[in-house]
Amino acid sequence: MIKRIEHVGIMVSNMDESITFYETLLGFQLRVRVKNEEKEIAFLSHNGLPDFEIELLHDLQPTTSYSAYGLVNHVAFIVHDIEEIISYYKQKGIVFETEKPKYGINGRKTIRFRGLDGEILQLVEEKKEEFIQNK
Amino acid sequence: MIKRIEHVGIMVSNMDESITFYETLLGFQLRVRVKNEEKEIAFLSHNGLPDFEIELLHDLQPTTSYSAYGLVNHVAFIVHDIEEIISYYKQKGIVFETEKPKYGINGRKTIRFRGLDGEILQLVEEKKEEFIQNK
């Protein structure tokens, strides 16, 4: 049901400087950068591991900060059908952060839950065209 | 110089239970599990992303705990020549956690440093046979 690991999220205080850091020192390429009222997000890809990305997160509203849970903040997983897996996980006792999935950038459905020690894990439903391409 | 992203490290308080959690709910397979006086470590692989793993870390000695830096604790990168990249990064102002690389499991050289916000990043020198296989 979990198709693959997709990204790890890292909290940063200065998006420009951190993008430059990951690009110049660690060989990443900025793929997309978006901002809403709460936060700014950038996804960086790496040629050495094409199916995995680093997400840099900068909280514009300190009250919404994830960083209390660590600077390397969460790991995200791609799933085919998020509603199906939420239903299955609920049967297993998993409590999700929100009642329903939210829409992330690119309109993908996403929801968070916790591992046994509180580590943040995220499910992301792949887009239909990704599913078709990868079938 | 950075070949690829290799793993993300997650702190856990009960290794048995967390391995079961990642295996049964998230589709991981335990690849290796080792213990020394300070900590127990398990690497879990996932069929969906063969070149990336999750490392579960359980501190046996609370004084050596990494968990103060977050439950999702660090991201690791594979490099060809760790001494060469340490030298290059030092010129760029990076301060490493230790003066010299340590030897991780499987005898691979490894060293840690921090991103701009203190996020923990780790370099791991690939073994010679890995380099030959992947050339």
UniProtKB/TrEMBL annotation, chains A, B:
Keywords: Lyase, Metal-binding. SUPFAM superfamilies: Glyoxalase/Bleomycin resistance protein/Dihydroxybiphenyl dioxygenase. One of its GO terms (biological process) is L-methylmalonyl-CoA metabolic process. InterPro entries: Glyas_Bleomycin-R_OHBP_Dase (IPR029068), Glyas_Fos-R_dOase_dom (IPR004360), MMCE/EMCE_epimerase (IPR051785), VOC_core (IPR037523). Pfam families: Glyoxalase. The keyword Zinc-finger does not apply. Residues 4-126 form the VOC domain. It comes from the Bacteria. PROSITE patterns: VOC. The keyword Acyltransferase does not apply. GO terms for molecular function: lyase activity; metal ion binding; methylmalonyl-CoA epimerase activity. Gene3D superfamilies: 2,3-Dihydroxybiphenyl 1,2-Dioxygenase, domain 1. This is Lactoylglutathione lyase. It comes from Aneurinibacillus migulanus.
